[in-house]
Specification:
Helix content is 27%, strand content 41%. By secondary structure, the chain is an alpha+beta fold. Strands 1, 2, 3, 4, 5, 6, 7 and 8 form an eight-stranded mixed β-sheet that branches. Helix 3 runs antiparallel to helix 4.
Length: 162
C-alpha cells in the first residue's frame, strides 16, 4: 500500500507515515464510504481491524444496504480518526486522520472468516476471549465478514503550538 499525500492541500499538515500506520492499528472505529446501488454516496461507521497495513476486516449482518452496495460498487474510501481536541477559544480543532482507498469483498472462506473474528476479538475484547468465542460461534452463521484490500492512504494532522 502506497502512502500518497500529493493531494493534501496543506502540506504542512501531512502526518508522518509511521504515525499514520500506527493509527491504523489504534483507531476504535472507521467510516467506510461507498456508492450505493442507486449511485448515491453512502457512509457507515464500523469497527475495523487491520491484519496488515494492506488489508482490514469488518463484520456486519449478512444482508443489508452495505453488502448490496459493495456487491455492485466494491471501491471504498475509509476514514479513521485519531486524536481530536476542540479549541473553542482559538476557533479551531487539533486532529489526526487517515484516509484509505481500496476494494471490498465479502469473505466466504470459513477459515478466513474465523481468522477475521479472532482478529476482531483480539482488538476489541482481549480480556474476554473465551466468552467472545462462545458468542462468536453462536453468531458466526448470521455474520458477514468483509475484507478491504487497500491500495493507498494518506494522513493529515493539525497540532497547535501553544
Amino acid at each position: 500500500m502506497r502512502y500518497n499525500t500529493k493531494d493534501i492541500r496543506r502540506q504542512d499538515r501531512v502526518m508522518d507515515e509511521s504515525r499514520a500506520r500506527q493509527l491504523l492499528a489504534e483507531a476504535e472505529y472507521a467510516v467506510v464510504s461507498m456508492t450505493d446501488t442507486e449511485g448515491l454516496p453512502y457512509g457507515i461507521p464500523v469497527n475495523m481491524v487491520f491484519e496488515s497495513p494492506d488489508h482490514a476486516y469488518i463484520h456486519c449482518a449478512p444482508e443489508g444496504k452495505k453488502l448490496r452496495a459493495l456487491a455492485v460498487h466494491p471501491h471504498v474510501s475509509v476514514c479513521l480518526i485519531g486524536h481530536v481536541h476542540l479549541l473553542p477559544s482559538k476557533f479551531t480543532t487539533e486532529y489526526e486522520s487517515v484516509v484509505l482507498q481500496g476494494q471490498a469483498r465479502q469473505v466466504t472462506d470459513e477459515e478466513e472468516r474465523r481468522h477475521a473474528i479472532q482478529l476482531i476479538l483480539d482488538k476489541y475484547s482481549p480480556n474476554d476471549m473465551e466468552r467472545g468465542w462462545f458468542y462468536a460461534n453462536r453468531s458466526l452463521p448470521r455474520t458477514a465478514i468483509v475484507r478491504i484490500d487497500f491500495t493507498e492512504f494518506s494522513g493529515k494532522n493539525k497540532k497547535m503550538h501553544t
